[in-house]
């Protein structure tokens, strides 16, 4: 299998080269040349086994082919349970059981393992530049922490992540450096993209990306959709529909990949926060990226979703994209209201991102929809304790791994939202 750029100006390349490069040289995003249909999958007990089956076609000609089982076992080392909520056919896909309590742990760990395995032993160290609206940076830092041959530079918008998220970005030390950028997430993303497309810089400082624009983040995320859908199908004989809280559209594109690969997935609906670039477009407006607005679901504060380029690539024009993908925006008032009522209505305490998905589910039920829907729980509520606890009126204890990182000291250095400053920082770190 070859990999192409969404912009069509890059020669077809191998998965190994696409993983290492992050962004395609023409500035586009790598996509597989096809999304191969898998034969019907048995419902496996172990998420790592499903991941291996889903990823195998993409790695058929990779130098990592033989190591895929081992890579999957170490990346998918924690469960992604599909749990029943209070009402019939209301389900929750819990993706927050990893070290940083958000779904990004799975793919970050897979990517870290893959890049390590691809690395020549005598190569100079690679710096992973990662723009984050809160959770990506922590997942990538945890995955690459103390990995030989890698450094991590995290760019996050100062003051726009929760206190616990900020802690989770700045607590690593060693080969991980956190920068709080004087700007919003789109600034951070622009800076990271600019560095990655600066060929002169890359000649001096080997760089790679671990953002959701990286192919090595996208494909591994298809595994948990495949796993949940196969399990649901084995139990009920029906396809499972998903509601995916979305910002940069990475996790949503992964759901689409799993659906296209023929897994028993029905509809996919997307929930955004007040950053409604995508719902507006899907409702018929021109596609118009907006400045980012700060919301309670901050990991979804994205006004210009970068994976939109993949979505465009996979659909033939506006009409077919609009027919296949539905999205709705959920504002902060609705998020607050959903969290407050969730213990009673659903039997859980959701994080603000998960709450956007629950809101869509509630609306579907109010319209009489009786199909099985799984809302994707993207993070553990304890990561957003300052928002969630006052609404539900009790403490939400952090899971063990999160509690451990909260006990470490944390620090981040300031950086202006200006490419020259980042470039200088990267050159200095390599010197
Ligand atoms: C990153 C993140 C999202 C959005 O995921 P995308 O892949 O960017 O759409 C949603 N919720 C949480 C908790 C996140 O960390």
Q: For the report, how would you describe the main beta sheet? A: 6 strands, mixed
Bound chemical compounds: pyridoxal-5'-phosphate
> Could you say how many structural domains there are in total?
1
Detail the poorly predicted runs.
none
Helix fraction bin: 40-55%
Q: What portion of the residues fall into strands of 2 or more residues?
A: 15-25%
Work out the helix count. Answer: 18
Major sheet strand order? 3-4-12-9-10-11
In total, the number of strands is 13
User: Which fold name corresponds to the CATH topology?
Assistant: Rossmann fold
CATH architecture: 3-Layer(aba) Sandwich
Q: Whole-number average pLDDT? A: 94
Overall spatial form: globular
Short description:
This protein has 431 residues and is an alpha/beta fold.
How would you describe this protein?
- The protein has 431 residues and is of the alpha/beta class.
- The protein has a single domain, classed as Rossmann fold.
- The protein is built from 18 helices and 13 strands.
- A 6-stranded mixed sheet has the order 3-4-12-9-10-11. It has a 5-stranded parallel sheet with strand order 8-5-6-7-13, with helices on both faces.
- Helix 5 links the parallel strand 5 (126-131) and strand 6 (150-157).
- Helix 2 packs across helix 9 (215-236), helix 3 runs antiparallel to helix 4 (104-118) and helix 5 (135-144) packs parallel to helix 6 (163-170).
- It starts with a strand and ends with a helix.
- The structure holds pyridoxal-5'-phosphate (PLP).
């Amino acid at each position: 299998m070859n990999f192409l750029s969404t912009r069509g100006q890059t020669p077809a390349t191998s998965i190994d080269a696409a993983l290492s490069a992050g962004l395609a040289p023409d500035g586009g995003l790598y996509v597989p040349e096809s999304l191969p249909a898998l034969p019907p999958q048995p419902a496996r007990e172990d998420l790592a086994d499903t991941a291996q089956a889903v990823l195998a076609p993409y790695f058929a000609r990779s130098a990592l082919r033989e190591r895929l089982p081992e890579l999957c076992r170490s990346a998918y080392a924690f469960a992604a349970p599909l749990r029943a909520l209070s009402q019939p056919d209301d389900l929750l896909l819990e993706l927050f059981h990893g070290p940083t309590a958000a779904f990004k742990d799975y793919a970050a760990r897979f990517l870290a393992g893959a890049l390590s395995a691809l690395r020549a032993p005598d190569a100079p160290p690679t710096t992973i530049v990662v723009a984050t609206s809160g959770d990506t940076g922590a997942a990538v830092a945890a995955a690459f922490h103390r990995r030989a041959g890698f450094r991590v530079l995290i760019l996050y918008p100062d003051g726009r992540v929760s206190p616990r998220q900020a802690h989770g970005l700045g607590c690593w030390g060693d080969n991980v450096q956190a920068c709080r950028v004087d700007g919003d997430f789109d600034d951070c993303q622009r800076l990271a993209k600019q560095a990655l497309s600066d060929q002169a810089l890359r000649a001096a400082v080997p760089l790679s990306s671990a953002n959701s624009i990286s192919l090595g983040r996208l494909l591994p995320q298809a595994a948990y959709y495949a796993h949940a859908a196969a399990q649901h199908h084995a139990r009920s004989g029906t396809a499972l529909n998903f509601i995916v809280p979305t910002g940069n559209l990475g996790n949503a594109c992964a759901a689409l990949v799993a659906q296209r690969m023929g897994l028993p997935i029905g509809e996919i609906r997307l929930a955004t926060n007040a950053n409604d670039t995508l719902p507006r477009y899907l409702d018929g407006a021109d596609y118009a990226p907006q400045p980012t607005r700060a919301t309670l679901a901050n990991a979804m504060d994205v006004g210009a979703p970068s994976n939109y380029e993949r979505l465009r690539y996979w659909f033939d024009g506006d009409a077919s994209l609009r027919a296949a993908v539905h999205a709705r925006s959920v504002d902060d008032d609705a998020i607050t209201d959903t969290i407050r009522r969730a213990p009673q209505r659903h039997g859980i305490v959701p994080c603000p991102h998960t709450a956007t998905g629950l809101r869509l589910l509630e609306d579907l039920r109010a319209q009489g929809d009786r199909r099985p829907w799984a809302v994707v729980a993207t993070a553990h509520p304890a990561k957003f304790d300052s928002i969630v606890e006052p609404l539900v009126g009790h403490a939400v204890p952090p899971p063990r791994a999160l509690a451990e990182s909260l006990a470490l000291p944390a620090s981040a250095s300031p950086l202006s939202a200006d490419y020259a400053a980042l470039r200088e920082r990267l050159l200095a770190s390599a010197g």
